[in-house]
Write a structure and sequence with these properties.
The protein has about 210 residues and is α+β, with helices and mostly antiparallel strands. It has two domains: about 80 residues; about 110 residues, Immunoglobulin-like, CATH 2.60.40. The strands form two sheets. A five-stranded antiparallel sheet has the order 7-4-3-6-8, with no helix packed on it. Strands 1-2-5 form a three-stranded antiparallel sheet, with no helix packed on it.
Length: about 210
């Protein structure tokens, strides 16, 4: 997928520089000519101009202003697109809020432990490109323990946003949406906050 937001962001300085260059080399000379003063030359004497000449110069000045407005509108559009679509045009998720929905919740068990392994937790992610992210699951007893095991803490997301995993039981469960580079700790007293490689977090009580 082409991240058009990055492309637009990189293009903005060039577009603004182009506008300034066009203004210097094209618009300014046209305006000077319309005002009766040749660009880059001092006017020693101006002969009376005809009505047709004044009309022509007025039209040239109007055209210069219109071109300036078009260039300004183009640069503004690029800026707005960059702000509206930070994930890039082409992901198919514009206007969709990033969210994790847990559709299959394991039972609640305050004791938990390895002997409770084999239960399932699952759900769906929306608002992102699935291939660019992973899921991390924690089950809580006295602490938060990564699932399904410390050796494989990252759960993949299918192309339609679905994810599922085995888990040990706990009284609560946490699901994190993370970047593939994230290295989740095996167990923690408190869940990590959103930021950096952690994009979204939700918790649910065992049923």
């Amino acid at each position: 997928m082409i991240n058009w937001a990055e492309v637009a962001g990189a293009a903005i300085p060039g577009v603004l520089a182009l506008i300034l260059e066009i203004s210097r080399k094209v618009l300014y000379p046209i305006q000077e000519k319309a005002n009766g003063r040749p660009h880059g030359k001092r006017v020693v004497h101006q002969s009376p101009e005809s009505r047709a000449s004044r009309t022509k110069r007025s039209e040239e000045l109007k055209g210069a202003r219109n071109l300036s407005l078009i260039l300004f509108a183009a640069s503004t559009a690029i800026t707005v697109l960059t702000w509206l679509f930070p994930q890039g045009i082409g992901s198919g998720n514009h206007g969709v809020e990033t969210r994790i929905t847990v559709t299959e919740t394991p039972p609640a068990d305050p004791q938990g432990g390895p002997w409770t392994a084999g239960h399932h937790i699952g759900g769906v992610v929306s608002g992102v490109t699935p291939a660019d992210f992973r899921i991390v699951i924690y089950a809580h007893t006295r602490r938060w323990y990564v699932q399904p095991e410390a050796a494989s803490p990252l759960t993949g997301i299918t192309s339609d946003g679905k994810w599922e995993s085995d888990t040990c039981l706990g009284d609560r469960y946490a699901v994190l949406l993370v970047k593939p580079s994230y290295l989740p700790p095996q167990d923690v007293a408190s869940l990590p906050g959103v930021g950096g490689d952690v994009v979204y977090l939700t918790t649910v009580a065992g049923k």
